[in-house]
Every structure is written in structure tokens, then in C-alpha cells.
Predict the structure.
Amino acid sequence: MAEISRRDFMRTAGLAAAGGCGLLLKGCASKTSYDVVIKDGLVVDGLGTPGRVADIGIVGDSISRIGTIPSSRGASVIPARGLVVAPGFIDVHNHTDINILVNPRAESYVRQGVTTIVAGQCGDSPFPLSDAMFEEAEKSLRKEYGLVLSWRDIRGFYALIDKSGTALNFSSCVGQGTVRAAAMGYEGRKPEAAELALMKKLVANSMAGGAFGISTGLEYAPGGFASTEELIEVCRAAAPYKGMYATHMRDEEDFVVEAVDEAIRIARESGLPLQISHLKTGYVRNWPKLGAILERLETARAAGLDVYCDRYPYIASATGLDLYFPLWAREGTTEVFLGRLRDPSLEVKLKAYVGTKEAEMGSWDRVLISGVDMEKNKGLEGMNILEASRNRGKPPFDFIRDLLIEESGRVGIVQFAMSEDNLMTLMAHPLVGIGSDGSALAPYGPLGKGKPHPRSYGAFPRALGKYVREERLLSIEAMVRKMTSVPAERFGFTRRGVLRAGNFADIVVFDPDRIRDKATWADPHQYPEGIPHVLVNGKVVIMDGEHSGVTAGAVLRKGGPEAA
Ligand SMILES: [Zn+2]
């Protein structure tokens, strides 16, 4: 910043030092009208309006004026000729969660131009915690990151982020799976009346503490043990707060259409708007179902349901290797799950189930191992299951089982089961926006490990580089709108998502000819290109492609002043 602003800064400083401000208030004010002026950029406002060349004047944390502003009136000036100036991107499906405490710079996101995230997704949030969960999380956080767990609920978690800082605006949903675990443990049974009441109370408390909605991950334990009726009941607790129902649906493959019906029913009967997370139809035989799904969503929308979806711009998904085992096998704690894997009497049953998963995938070569903890297994990262099992001289089932046992149930995988055509249909569809499904990482430090899905570094630039510039699926203005004003309006960030005077100055400056993702499957820890400047609440966080270290983000609480 120093280089481009030094001249103007010196002039302003000189004037103030000479005491000129007292008498020449008006003239002085005109000299120092703006803290930052972004000059001559193509302003894409976020509403879908065709871009126009204009200057943006920022005072404090907000946009003061958009129009023609002489450079001399900015304490610092960012030249943006030939660049697009857009609202900072909003990622509505983000798993950063505790990573924001591990590295408040949120490197892999803010460098994509993302200035606001909604965490607490897929039924999983870092709150609320029962005593047992607190104890377990306490140990693992200390061991993995040296973090001291000091919170039980959203208020405590948010207070800690307030204290340690965040480079981008952080918001969260409350996870239904976490709530269920807190109320009744990891058991796959119906809740007692008191347990259901406790779940509702925990959801209401989280909403009152500023959560933006409730999320589910119905393919996971324990959230997936809930019946549709239980989910409706629990979601109702978020209705008075106008929370969002964000769902990783019960099925994304053979029963994906039924899962969409269930999601619509839960939203309708609980009175919440619906956000379908990472909408996809996994496995080749389910690819033709996309039409039926979109038709159902359009019909629901026409009938008055506020429904929208998000999707990451990749055809591979990332999850845990344990997901290839049936839900009943995953019931209870990790130890119980591992016990079942070791139990010879269950082997035939488990092997048969895992075999159906292999058949659905087509081949184990479509599943990559992306993250393991043990040093002796590190060499497996980046290999597919077929290669890796050969490498260990075991049949695939034995390999998968033994690896899960060795790694205490935690093995990250990336699975290629989606259609590129469907992805393009989704990206261009008016009811689908961008959600990265990743988490804030950095190529250095404890968040730089393994071979994570490249979406954590590349989702937003990939949408603009590959799908707007190269594939010409839709205009820059239309894609930016999906990333900004649409999510802002749906989640209730009323002073964000649109470049307009009075709004918070969350701004990304990018080069439409150069923006691209660089993160790959083999080498995912790479920042994108073509995004020179990012401002969060008026402060320059990325300048000339470098992180300033400034943690200018706010913790957003639904209904709070920072969000509104
Ligand atoms: Zn999910």
C-alpha cells in the first residue's frame, strides 16, 4: 500500500501538520475525504447490473461514494484500471470452524476474494458441547493445534474469535448432528421427549447467540439417525429467529430425488428457508436425475418456498473413508466403530456393503486418499485406493478396514463420481450459487498438511476463470451476483454483498483475464492468481497479492449490527 499511496499520504499528513484543518475545514475535508479510493475499476455491483467504470471512496469500514473521485481525495489510492471491482465473495458453505482460531488470517479464502463465510455446515459445528464432547474435543484440539478449548456454546466460541481476530467476516450455523450428540450422545435411536426438548433448547440458544441457521449432515452419524419428523421438530426451534435450513441431504446418489423431497418437506413444515448444500447426483447411473431434481426445486419455489442451492465447481467430492461403511456400523463413538471393524463376525456383512459401494463407484481408482495422520501412511496420500491397496499387498476391503483402524477412523478421501455436464447445468441455473465446502487452510503451519480438496484454495477463482472466462457459461456480472447479493440477501447480511454507498466496504479487485485457480489434486496448497486486492470492512487485507496480516473481519451475529 505504501508505494501507491505515499504521495497522497504525504500531502494529507503535511496539511494536517500545518494546522490547516481548523480554518479550511471544507477544503481540508475535500482533501482527506476518503481513507481509500479504488480508482478507474470496472465496478460490478453484485446485483447483476452491467459493470461500469467508476471510482469507489471508502471511509472507515464503509463505502462512502461510488462515482468520479479525484485521486487526490484519497489518503491512499488503489489503481484498478482494467480490473473488476466487485463485492467480496460470500461463501455460504464453509467448514472453517475452529480453523479460524488456528490461523486467523484465513489465507486460502481471503486470497480467493472471499470476505464472508458461513461455517457450521453439514450438521457439524464447534458448539454446543456436552461434558463428554468437551472432554474429547479438549484433548484433540490440544494435541493437534495446541489450542485450549474454552467454550461450550456459540457465545463462548464467538467471543474467542472476537479476541483472536479474523481476516474475514465469520458467521456460522448450528449443526444438528452436534446438537443431537450433545443432547443424547451418538446412539441411533429415537430421542426421549426430554432429549428432544433439550435439542430444541440448544438450537434456540444458538440462534439467540447469533447463528444464521441450522445445518444437517444426514449421511453422517449421529445426525442421520434423526427421522424426518424429528428434524422438523428440531428445525422449528430456529423459526422464530428466521434461521436458514442448510442441508447435506440424506442421500446424494440412488435416493437423491427422495432426499430432495425430504429437504423440501422439512423446510416447509418447520417454516425455514431452504439451502441445499453441495447439490450433486453421485454415480453415473444417477446423473440423469438432475432434471427431476431441478424441476422439484422450481415447483417448490413457485409454490412459495424460499429454496436455493450451492455447489462447488469441481466434479470430485471430499469426505471420510468411513463413509463407505453403513450407518449402523458408524453408530456410537469412534472406538465402537473401530471395534466393529475388528469384529470377525461382522466381516461378511461389512464386506458386502463396501462391495456395493465399489460397484457404485465403478472402480476404486476413482477414490484418492487425501489425508492421513500417521507418518508411516503419509506415502499413501495422493494415491487411489486401488494403487494404495496394491502397494500394501492387500485386497481393497482389507486395506480400507486396516487403514481406518490404524488411523483411528480418520482418513480423508476425494471421490470422482460426478458429471461435468451436470456441474455446468448447475452453475448456470438461477437457483444455484457457489459454496466451496472447504475450510481455511494455508501452505504453512498446521493447516498445510495432506492433500485436501483443492476447493479450499480455488473454488471462487475457478468459477470465474474456468466457467465464466473459458466455458462462457454466464457473464461475470451474473456469476458475481451468485457469489454476493444473492447469498447476502438470503442469509440476512443486509449491508454486504452489494457495492453501494452505506454498505460495508468488503471488496475484491480481480483481473478478469488472469483470474484462475492453481490448486490441483496433486498439489492443492496453492493460492489462486489474478486477485491483487481484497478489502474487508474498509481495510486492505490483500494488497498486490500479499496478505497484510490485518484481521479486519467481524464475527457476524444474526440480527447484530455487523451483519445488518
Ligand atoms: Zn456436506
